[in-house]
Amino acid sequence: MANIFPPNTNKRFYGGAVLIALAAALVLGGLYYVNFQVPEYEPVQPVRFSHKLHAGDLNMSCTACHSAATRSPRAGIPDTKSCLGCHQHILPNSPLIAPLRQAADPQYPGYTGEPVRWVMVNRLSGHAYFNHMAHLNRGIGCTSCHGDVAGMERIRAPRDARMQWCLDCHRNPAPHLRPLEETDASHYSAADYLRTHSVQDTDGNRLRTPVQLGNFLKHQWNIQPKMDCSTCHH
Ligand code: HEC
Ligand code: HEC
Ligand code: HEC
Ligand code: HEC
Ligand code: HEC
């Protein structure tokens, strides 16, 4: 980490001051959290896109649209052109599809080329760092963090996406771990997975319970999420 103190300052003093400031911020942050719980955030979007229909009923995987999630820090919002891959055939003349064609179909009479302005829902404040790839490639699934998106007509951010939530899982990740091919699944249940797949531990015994599976994956992949402040605060 870069040295933020000029060479001649009294580092002990500044170090103490920084610690006290951090402790105060944590206490205030805690009070804020207890007293003013943030409601779930569910803004109206410019197009009535339904995750319940696409990820739920049509059972599309999450990365079919958010393909950046496994190879970059961000999950990304799909380009409107990718929607038209289906919607130039499926309900192309529906008024609900019109904004997509205005944005991305030059043949459409009302074409403007203006991108659809989706309202962002999940946003950490600037001082915390998050990385999708670091989770998806280590066995944490989309729905472990974003909830039952495949059941949502309109996307909703969880009310507890705060530091304590990150730390709780970093301290004890085993119950949340899944086989890698399941991390982008719209629906996942460890119990169902164990019923339909034979997973064996290193001694050849078949794993029977979700607890066994979580502990096995943690051990097998040597999962050790970091807890030090600089992991998420640069
Ligand atoms: C470990 C928890 C976690 C997992 C797993 C996770 N997300 Fe996220 N997601 C977050 C957080 C936290 C943010 C806010 C990030 C920020 O503001 O920097 C976010 C933001 C997003 C966003 C909006 C901003 C962006 O990154 O482009 C989308 C879309 C998204 N996630 C989709 C997904 C999908 C799809 C998956 C699975 C392929 C997934 N997420 C897996 C926690 C998670
Ligand atoms: C794999 C094909 C596929 C893709 C890709 C797809 N959709 Fe759909 N979409 C459908 C189907 C199927 C329906 C339901 C059609 C029906 O009700 O008969 C639908 C319905 C809709 C509707 C409701 C239309 C109406 O009149 O009821 C909207 C809005 C919509 N999609 C938006 C989008 C957006 C935005 C994207 C891109 C992010 C997208 N779709 C990508 C297949 C797709
Ligand atoms: C057919 C394409 C499509 C599929 C499949 C899809 N998404 Fe999305 N997703 C979108 C679009 C378009 C948006 C932006 C509009 C909105 O918020 O509804 C979005 C927004 C999101 C957001 C909110 C982004 C923000 O602003 O914070 C999250 C979280 C998310 N998706 C997670 C998922 C998860 C988890 C799955 C799998 C269960 C999934 N998506 C499947 C197209 C898709
Ligand atoms: C696993 C990731 C992670 C680790 C490790 C972590 N933080 Fe955080 N921290 C966050 C997130 C996420 C937020 C909330 C950002 C937001 O509100 O959008 C946050 C917020 C904060 C805040 C603002 C008050 C609050 O609670 O919202 C302070 C102060 C803070 N962290 C200090 C620390 C200190 C000191 C450490 C080391 C003991 C630490 N953090 C370790 C992720 C982390
Ligand atoms: C459901 C469990 C879970 C949640 C929630 C979660 N993480 Fe993680 N996180 C993990 C796991 C597992 C890893 C991978 C550890 C490994 O590779 O050994 C990880 C890794 C990371 C890494 C990469 C550095 C490292 O430790 O290897 C960062 C940065 C990170 N998480 C930040 C966050 C932040 C910020 C939040 C909250 C907004 C968060 N995480 C929430 C489970 C979680």
TrEMBL record:
What keywords sit in the KW lines? Answer: Heme, Iron, Membrane, Metal-binding, Transmembrane, Transmembrane helix
Recite the UniProt cofactor note for this protein.
Binds 4 heme c groups covalently per monomer.
| Entry-linked InterPro entries | Cyt_c7-like, Cyt_c_III, Multihaem_cyt_sf
Q: Which Pfam families match?
A: Cytochrome_C7
> What's the superkingdom here?
Bacteria
| Family annotation (Gene3D superfamilies) | Cytochrome C3
Q: Which residues cross the membrane?
A: 12-34
- Annotated Cytochrome c7-like domain residues: 47-89
Q: Which GO terms describe its molecular function?
A: electron transfer activity; heme binding; metal ion binding
Q: Which cofactor does it need?
A: heme c
Positions of heme c 1 binding: H51, C62, C65, H66, H87
Which amino acid positions bind heme c 2, per UniProt?
C86
Instruction: Tell me what this protein is called.
Output: Cytochrome C
For the ligand (heme c 3), the binding residues are: H54
The stretch of residues making up the signal peptide is none
